Amino acid sequence: MTAEQTKQYTEQMAVITAVLLLTAVVVIKCTSGMCYVEVSCLVINLEHMDCTWKQDCRLQLNYTFQSRLGSRPPFRDCPQYLREGGYNVGCRLPYKINDKFSSLHTRLSGDNNVTKEQTIQMKERVKLKPPLNLSVVVNSTNLELWLYWNTSTKSTCTESEVRYRKQDDQWHSAIIQMSATSHSIPFIFQNHQYELQVRTRVSHFCGESMFWSDWSAPIFYHVPGKRNATGKRS
């Protein structure tokens, strides 16, 4: 091998070694708990708090979670982990009335104790369960449809949104005032089927949430047609 060939070989090996070292550093960072991970928390139906996290690494890490509410020391270990595929992917925390008005401080630790801390404002992060027990009453005299429902929490602190459509038409929606659990739809069409749903959230009077509940299960109602001279509906 000539001196020139030896020089080229040495330079090539140096490049390969540098690439391998860089790859090793990236893998070490990932396996040592330094993956990017973000914690997201929700108050579920004013019953408990669920904090979940996702990571951007291909390699799975088992995180440990601690939290404290407001200025209450110290950090406490997670009382109930949410698991998926054998890994911790979240934590369920107890909830007491008005806890949502305090900041939630979270601490997430990787396998090598690399720690990520966050402060989350919980007031706007309340998600209620969908309304239930939907029912319909129709006034055949003035063709007005009334929709009724129940909420899963105190109705005095919620506002609702109703959406409805006839057949496969476009949805129409309306925001319902606080504490109301009914809504009227005037001038409905006879001999048509209506589909109706409701969702709800904490109103601004009780610290408005940015999260609506999921839509309720739909209720379907077919408005009968007029009776003709023979007594049959058209």
Automatic annotation (TrEMBL):
Listed A to Z, the keywords are: Disulfide bond, Glycoprotein, Membrane, Receptor, Signal, Transmembrane, Transmembrane helix
List membrane-spanning regions: 12-28
Q: Where in the cell is it found?
A: Membrane
Domain Fibronectin type-III as annotated: residue spans? 130-226
Gene3D superfamilies membership:
Immunoglobulins
Query: Primary place of residence?
Result: membrane
Q: Does the keyword Iron apply?
A: no
Q: How does it sit in the membrane?
A: Single-pass type I membrane protein
- Superkingdom of origin organism: Eukaryota
**Any GO MF annotation of the entry:** cytokine receptor activity
What Pfam families does UniProt report for this protein, alphabetically?
A: CRLF2_D1 (PF21604)
User: Which GO cellular component term is one of those annotated?
Assistant: external side of plasma membrane
The record, for InterPro entries, names: CRLF2-like_D1, FN3_dom, FN3_sf, Ig-like_fold
Tell me the protein's name. Cytokine receptor common subunit gamma-like
